[in-house]
Amino acid sequence: MDLYEYQGKELFRRFGIPVSEGRLAETPEEALAAADELGGPVVVKAQVLTGGRGKAGGVKLAETPEDAEAKASDILGLDIKGHVVRRLWIEKASDIAKEYYLSIAFDRGAKQPLFMFTTQGGVEIEQVAEENPDALVRLHVDPLEGFQPWVARRLIYGAGVDDPNEQKQIASIVEKLYRAFVESDAMLTEINPLIVTPEGEVKALDSKFTVDDNALFRHPDIAEMRDTEAADPLETFAREKLDGDVGICGNGAGLSMSTVDVVAHVGGRPANFCDLGGGGDAEGVVDALEVITRDPQVKSIFFNIFGGITRCDEVARGILAALDRLDMSAYPIVVRLDGTNAEAGRRILAEAGKPNIYPEATMLEGARKAVELAKK
Amino acid sequence: MDLYEYQGKELFRRFGIPVSEGRLAETPEEALAAADELGGPVVVKAQVLTGGRGKAGGVKLAETPEDAEAKASDILGLDIKGHVVRRLWIEKASDIAKEYYLSIAFDRGAKQPLFMFTTQGGVEIEQVAEENPDALVRLHVDPLEGFQPWVARRLIYGAGVDDPNEQKQIASIVEKLYRAFVESDAMLTEINPLIVTPEGEVKALDSKFTVDDNALFRHPDIAEMRDTEAADPLETFAREKLDGDVGICGNGAGLSMSTVDVVAHVGGRPANFCDLGGGGDAEGVVDALEVITRDPQVKSIFFNIFGGITRCDEVARGILAALDRLDMSAYPIVVRLDGTNAEAGRRILAEAGKPNIYPEATMLEGARKAVELAKK
Amino acid sequence: MAIIVDNDTRLVVQGLTGSEGRFHGLRNRAYGTNVVAGVTPGKGGQDVEGIPVFDTVAEAVSEAGANTSLVFVPARFAVDAVYEAVDAGIGTVIAITEHVPAHEMLRAYPYFRGKGVTMIGPNCPGVLSPGKANVGIIPAEIFSEGSIGLVSRSGTLTYQIGHELTQLGLGNSTIVGIGGDPVVGSSFIDVLERFEADDETDLVVMVGEIGGDEEEKAAGFVQERMSKPVLSYIAGFSAPPGKTMGHAGAIISGSSGTAQAKKEALEACGIEVGTTPTEVAQMVAERAGARA
Amino acid sequence: MAIIVDNDTRLVVQGLTGSEGRFHGLRNRAYGTNVVAGVTPGKGGQDVEGIPVFDTVAEAVSEAGANTSLVFVPARFAVDAVYEAVDAGIGTVIAITEHVPAHEMLRAYPYFRGKGVTMIGPNCPGVLSPGKANVGIIPAEIFSEGSIGLVSRSGTLTYQIGHELTQLGLGNSTIVGIGGDPVVGSSFIDVLERFEADDETDLVVMVGEIGGDEEEKAAGFVQERMSKPVLSYIAGFSAPPGKTMGHAGAIISGSSGTAQAKKEALEACGIEVGTTPTEVAQMVAERAGARA
User: Fold this and answer.
1) Would the pLDDT of D39 be above 80?
2) Strand locations in chain D, DSSP E?
3) Closest alpha carbon to D37 in D7, D5, D69
4) Other residues' Cβ atoms within 10 Å of the Cβ of residue A353
5) Between B and C, how many CB-CB pairs are < 8 A?
6) Residues of B with Cβ-Cβ distance to C46 under 8 angstroms
7) Neighbours of B297 (CB within 10 A)
8) What is the pLDDT of residue A234?
9) In Å, how far are A277, C85, D207, D221, D267 from D230, measured between CA atoms?
10) Fold of D143-291
């Protein structure tokens, strides 16, 4: 689960990482009130779960509350890489002397958390990694050792931070960021830029914070931060949108992706795909079909199911139940069932005798049939 | 640092381990007031840093506040194994259906914490360990793994606790006791007995809690619990009292103990011994001499110093400074100096020309001389 | 001898009395796996169709001689169950449970690794050595005995490829689903190493997916350390560029993670890569025929 | 070759710029130890009488080739310093610092043990291989080169016994003070194992104290695994029964911990035990004479 900047900063604040004071605003009026309350110049920042908002015009300085209101009007409703801006973070403007970068992320390969720190922050970190790799200090933390103070020292001295006043503040932020990472079950926490003000104060000017969905049960406060408007449950269900005319539904991410490949391989154009997961009950199938058919380009649908923990008879019943609830008469549905209880599943579909259900014996044949039906 | 029962229970309470309500009392009047406030029958419990207070008459049931006052009078001032009772813990009396035992301690050999649990609590645990070893469940916790819930299950099922209601409460207490052990930097936390009331409530009826002195800097609240009256700094400095006439001062526990052995070996009777530790400045030597000469049986004093981090010239100057501050004319002082700066130390003493200082070249000869002088 | 599970496996099912544990535990036994015990705290003394249930894994080891554990415990208790198994002396732990918090596995992984324990999963379909033992949820009926090792990050895709092999008359020594979680107990390399050492395995199929750089690392291992041929299938050739985990994510793995990039990296290490399950099965058939 | 420190030792002193670190670091160098670096955060770039100081141990390793660390860092930062050394690739860490919190060492011990690092201390006098290297605070001038290994829980008592040996014309291969804290990096057994494997050591003196059961365990090791003669001295024959750590303490070690009980246990394993430092030195002289 990705958090908005303002939510990540709220967590930073709880863990003692310095951030600027700010207010959330959803209208220009709220932006004006927020700026008025904060006093002085503010920055109006689009809250979207994607990068590049600065270049897209989503971050603007406002000298007065009226200016903040105007800037808020400009930014609200902007479309930034497909994300429509509905929330703004109005924050006291900071003077910036230096911009650093600090993150800790899950390194799957090493199976350890990885710190990255550089004094060349504020830009895209990939660029630093590529153009000036020595300037980017990388350091793993052994989970059996846990965080130890020397880790902060290695980062700070490694990156060449010389000012003892900065060193002290950054060491404290490094330790707190690690605590935030572990205690919030985060997959990533990133501060870019971590600024130094002309007065020598170090603070987080932005936040990227991703929390492990599987651990949200331990963090009801974070779970509540989920933006239910932005995260349509059907949208999250549909894993990926493509651009063709065959809707694909598999069980398991691997098989679903592979089905997309095979449809493409036999000359078809996948429209989208979704993963039934371990389930396959009527509820899941209805959700899947709703998502798939939302896309007006879809002409045919291919269910490719290999039962394991999923039982094919249950999926077959799920498909029939879904056809009772949704009007699917416009869509030919190719169904391939194999694995656990496949015989029973095939029999159930055969006995139902639905005219728009086309059973196929193999993945390859199913893909061919679906492509053929989409072209009709 | 050993904590009194009431202090240990205060820590238990902070970590969520159930204990009975109680009040501290230092006079019979306070005991009366406490019993009155608590209501109903109370137990008046001597607070001493030693075991066996029950047998010594230090724990008594009182039905009324007046009775509590009377029992407090009886107990205050009792001498229990050399500890004079100055504090009482007045606690609501508990009905006891069962008595269990639970502890977690530092196992130096295994270099791991060790849980011990048995349903045969209330008695001396050594007795259970000896007479019925299968009834005592022992389980190490790997510090790299930390506490995991299965540890509580192994203890509970291993000891044969069948009641699900008890199991649940004990599992929670086991986890909290581990937290108390780790987060308080304890060397030992012991609950004996851990009782089950007739209503099925599980709670700690006693507490033994020892905290690592070296970690007290992290626990100012616990450090404040130190009983400065009971712990005379000079007393804690004098490590051990024996029963002879030669006072011994070494540097380092091993050498000091060995010096005692050698004095005994050459036919002497050690009076006491103290360890200068790594120091050897005038302050340390004055403290050592004060402690040694407190014992009226002492006839001679033996300084046995092998310099390492301790420098012999510093010790020599310390001895001379101490003689300026204390009247030591009644005591012959044998001084053996070796190791770091021994030559310089010997020269300093020789140049001072004090009549009651007897330099000796070896530990053995020093011991013999001190014994000989004690017999004069 | 196959790898990880075989005729010497003495299985304890942690969570045997739950619905999934019971269903698959009994299926595993019906297949011929030696299921010697179940563990459910509080249900010690009961049995599940003759399989004795204990309160703790320690008892399952001391009373029933269990040496391998299958974990069907719910996600929030699953890592505790793994620790319990490891500290009770179980040498092989196969965890099916999905949705295990990543940080818990992050801490547990080096611990049981240090103890020399073999762990598979979590969030995996398990391990099947056809004709010997099935531990987990893999539908055994679609596989047959043979000399092809199969290792995969994906459950159902493993079945698909196994099925395609079976259709071509090819059998497997062992099928291992390593699971797709951020931290899993055994990597591709761990399993490839075992296949290399296994007498019954002649050839290995590695089934990967887009994302990360596990397949690339495995390819390096194959090139440097393996004598047996390895073929591969990567799912996701038509997938759009995935969401990256912030900017840090992309730098960490040092890999673009696309199927095409993986295919190229694997081929550079001498590993043939099929673009569909059917194609990889045919490639295996050709190689196996050439070796027969 | 001696053990733990020798001519191949390239020492970094953590805390070199502190008063103790400076005093002993320079003394160690004056003895002939190859002191290649110091570490004090914030003082990188300075030097202590020509010894370069770095901010981190990692730099001391990469810039100065340090392979052994001597820790003089204050107690509350000492374990952090040990972790830093271990993770920077230092293979041998000798920690002099006393008053290190026991729980910190409890967690650190299995970690660096798992990494294969040799740790001595904390709260120990260090390690001296006469004629080769002195790392720590042992007054080297009282020892001479020879073939007697010496291992001890106690600092000054070690000096006493070494001194007595020197008076009798006997020298040492290596003197190791393991320290007396509840958790130390190396036990008697760890050091005995190394002496057994060391070509330059013919005989070992083990200096113990009352309390615990480390000496008894070591005796079992000597009986089962050592070919070289081991003699021992135990301090505390005249000590009154000590305070026990609650009731749990006594049960844990399963030993009464008195000097007499230890002496009997050691003798039962074939280890001669002297009752004074002088006596044990004489016993060693007799054994060494017999072997010469």
Assistant:
1) yes
2) 11-14, 35-39, 47-48, 51-54, 68-71, 92-95, 118-120, 126-129, 133-136, 145-152, 172-177, 203-209, 230-235, 272-274
3) D69
4) 7
5) 39
6) none
7) 15
8) 44
9) 66, 41, 10, 11, 11
10) Rossmann fold (3.40.50)
Whole-angstrom distance, CA of residue C278 vs CA of residue C274 = 8
Q: Would you state the pLDDT for residue D243?
A: 43
What pLDDT score was predicted for residue A98?
Answer: 97
Phi/psi-derived region of residue D72, left when phi > 0, alpha when psi is between -120 and 50, beta in every other case: alpha
Helices (H) then strands (E): counts for chain C: 10, 14
Nearest to A76 by CA among A28, A108, A124, A33: A28
**Most confident of the following: A118-127, C245-254, D198-207:** D198-207
Separation in Å, CA of D55 to nearest CA in chain A = 7
Among B3-7, B178-182, D212-216, D245-249, name the one with the lowest average pLDDT.
Answer: D245-249
Query: Neighbouring chains of C at 3+ CB pairs within 8 Å?
Result: A, B
- Count of Cβ atoms closer than 10 Å to residue A37 Cβ: 12
Angle at A219 between CA A213 and CA A225, to 5 degrees: 75
pLDDT surpassing 60 at residue C113: yes
Quick one: fold of C10-120? Rossmann fold (3.40.50)
Whether pLDDT at D254 is above 90: no
Going by C-alpha positions, the residue among D155, D187, D153, D192 that lies closest to residue D173 is D192
Give per-residue pLDDT as tens, B206-229: 999 999 999 999 999 999 998 766
Instruction: Give the position of tokens 């009026």.
Output: A29
Q: Do D238 and B364 touch (CB under 8 A)?
A: no
Q: What is the pTM of this model?
A: 0.92
* Cα–Cα dist D271/D264, whole Å: 9
- Does residue A233 carry a pLDDT above 50? no
Q: Which tokens belong to D287? A: 């054994």
Alpha carbons C211 and A9: distance in angstroms, whole number: 29
Chain CA centroid to CA A279, Å: 23
CA dist., res. D131 & res. A193, Å (int) = 55
Q: What is the Cα–Cα distance from D130 to D141, expressed in whole angstroms?
A: 9
Sketch the domain layout of chain D as residue ranges: 10-120, 143-291
Segment C239-262 shows an average pLDDT of: 63
Specify the pLDDT at position C154.
87
Interface of D with A (CB under 8 A): 41-42, 44, 55-59, 77, 79-81, 83-84, 87, 107-108, 110-111, 114
Cβ atoms within 10 A of the Cβ of B26, count? 14
CB atoms within 10 A of CB B219: 18
Between A275 and B63, the higher pLDDT residue: B63
- Tokens representing C211? 């994302």
User: Is the C-alpha dihedral spanning D264, D266, D270, D273 positive or negative?
Assistant: negative
Low-confidence ranges of chain B (pLDDT < 50): 232-238
> Do the first three CATH levels of D10-120 and D143-291 match, i.e. the same topology?
yes
If pLDDT is split at 50, 70 and 90, which confidence band does C241 have? low
What are the structural domains, with CATH classification, of chain B? Answer: 21-92 (3.30.1490.20), 98-229 (3.30.470.20), 233-375 (3.40.50.261)
Q: Considering Cα of B9, then B10, then B13, then B14, what sign does the dihedral take?
A: negative
Backbone φ and ψ for A88, nearest 5 degrees, come out as -125, 150
Q: Decide which of A341 and A75 is more confident.
A: A75
Nearest CA to B117 among B63, B78, B174, B166?
Answer: B174
Place of tokens 């990597």: C187
* Distance separating alpha carbons of residues C261 and C244, to the nearest angstrom: 16
pLDDT of res. B237? 43
Residue B190 appears among annotated catalytic residues: yes
Nearest to D51 by CA among D28, D77, D75: D28
Residues of A in contact with C180 (CB under 8 A): 253-254
Q: What is the mean pLDDT of residues D265-292?
A: 89
